[in-house]
Write a sequence for this structure.
């Protein structure tokens, strides 16, 4: 395989989807490397596939890992600048050339070499880009509302999904985890939080953390994918996973260039958590330590993110 600068992370739904076709498609598109994360329940054909597709690295993962944890695991096997997260029940509709995608993404991302080259041409205005979101269609090739935006009401977060209409629209998180990621920025951000098992809140935590720490997630019209079957439904019920998301992203106070989680917020958190005092205290104090360790990485608070979301455009976030 060539050296396009783009690698693929393939997640599996757990059914007998025609992965052979997708492997061939990814190879033909010029991806440098493919990591296929397999469930232990789907080992029946891994040995055969590994012989037939030597350019694919297969990882057998425990069943209890969340999708975000599977991505983190796969990224540990990669070494290139970019990776594209896909599911095995997806296919490219357009824009699947790996070299072209990598060239475009590196030009407009925060890649160091691209920053220097671009700075010489436009006075240093370079767009920061953690993740680029493709257009996603259903099996009938109807464009899906996958562009997430946040809204806060009385310290409760809701997200709304809309159809991406133009190039460079900001998205809160990659729908279904699908997108082209900058590997260095992904690792620096800490990847997906493995302590959050609900995939919706895992993605929302990733997206809010990215925005709070000054990163950008934006869409592109250049790449289109479609599902081969039903579109996955997000479970956004406010349960235990939401509590960790809340503490990490909504509860911190940002002041004088630093974030902190005030002790005074514990009692309110405890009464609303429904947990025993010791459990709630351990959760709260653990997240408080994490925020203290990363206090200087915050650039704003969650209220600012939500209130100014409609003003958030890539051209306004150049550095």
């Amino acid at each position: 395989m060539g050296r396009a600068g783009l690698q693929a992370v393939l997640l599996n739904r757990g059914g007998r989807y025609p992965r052979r076709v997708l492997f061939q498609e990814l190879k033909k598109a010029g991806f440098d490397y493919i990591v296929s994360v397999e469930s232990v329940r789907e080992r029946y054909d891994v040995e055969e596939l590994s012989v037939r597709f030597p350019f694919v690295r297969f990882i057998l993962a425990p069943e209890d890992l969340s999708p975000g944890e599977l991505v983190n695991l796969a990224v540990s096997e990669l070494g290139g600048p970019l990776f594209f997260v896909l599911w095995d029940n997806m296919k490219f509709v357009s824009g699947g050339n790996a070299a072209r995608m990598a060239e475009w993404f590196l030009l407009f991302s925060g890649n160091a070499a691209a920053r220097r080259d671009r700075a010489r041409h436009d006075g240093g205005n370079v767009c920061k880009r953690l993740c680029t979101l493709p257009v996603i269609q259903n099996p009938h090739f109807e464009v899906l509302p996958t562009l997430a935006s946040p809204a806060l009401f009385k310290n409760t977060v809701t997200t709304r999904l809309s159809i991406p209409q133009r190039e460079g629209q900001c998205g809160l998180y990659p729908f279904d985890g699908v997108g082209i990621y900058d590997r260095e920025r992904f690792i620096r951000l800490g990847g997906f939080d493995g302590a959050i098992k609900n995939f919706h809140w895992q993605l929302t935590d990733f997206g809010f953390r990215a925005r709070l720490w000054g990163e950008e997630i934006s869409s592109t019209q250049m790449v289109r994918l479609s599902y081969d079957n039903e579109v996955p439904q997000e479970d956004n019920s406010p349960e235990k996973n939401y509590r960790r998301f809340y503490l990490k992203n909504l509860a911190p106070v940002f002041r004088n260039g630093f974030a902190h989680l005030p002790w005074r917020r514990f009692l309110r958190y405890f009464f609303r958590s429904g947990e025993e005092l010791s459990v709630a205290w351990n959760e709260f104090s653990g997240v408080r330590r994490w925020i203290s360790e990363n206090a200087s990485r915050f650039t704003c608070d969650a209220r600012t993110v939500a209130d100014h979301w409609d003003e958030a455009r890539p051209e306004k976030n150049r550095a």
Summary: The longest helix spans residues 277-293. The radius of gyration is 20 Å. The chain has two domains: 6-227, 242-316. The first strand starts at residue 6 and ends at 11.
